[in-house]
Amino acid sequence: MKRSYLIFGILVLLIVSAANAVETPSGEWILKQVDKNIGSDNKITMGAMIIHGRRGSRTIKSKSWLKGTNISFTEYLAPAREKGTKMLKLADELWTYSPSTDRIIKISGHMLRQSVMGSDFSYEDMMEDPELHKLYEAEVIAEETYDERLCWVLELTARDDDIAYYSRKVWVDKERFIALKEQRYARSGKLLKTTEISDVIMVQNHWVPRKMLFKDVLKGGKGTEFLLESIEFNADIPDHIFTKAALRK
Question: What is the model's pTM?
């Protein structure tokens, strides 16, 4: 009789373990769903970047055209000081144009670590491929509730040495497959930057962040806030937008 109970108990444990294995998908699969949610051939976005510095806050408005994951063009619309500044990203190359100097500058090398418009966001952040499954290996390390949403907690480890952040910890909404919270680390384990999304909306069958706070923990201030005003997926964008000639137009 005791042996029968022991066998029954082992069977129950095996069934529970198998059920848990089925319920928790792999980290790689989850990360691909996150990338799929934000992916699109072409996108047009308008938004505001609110930089909360030590001496106060300032707001910069912009419009961006994106083709796939590695081609983009951004024009800054306000305030007057930044109006007309433009950026062009073509794969692993980045150029900026300043109307005040009427110069086109290629951003490369150590310049990539500089802040964009004094924000917590660097040019290096702009250059990173947004499809994280191409850059990182992912492992599910926990399941937690964040901002009243059930999340998988993923630990990401860089596939190559030349990636800006060696590891990341990401809280992925189980239902909407959007990263609601993120921590980015150096190889030493030192925390470098954090992201928190506080407002999410559905647009053309995609869950997108409407309000996000990005913080460089090594800097002062309260971080840089991103407010999405509009987004159009699968937009019709002429090819001439993504040219260096467009920077001076």
Answer: 0.86
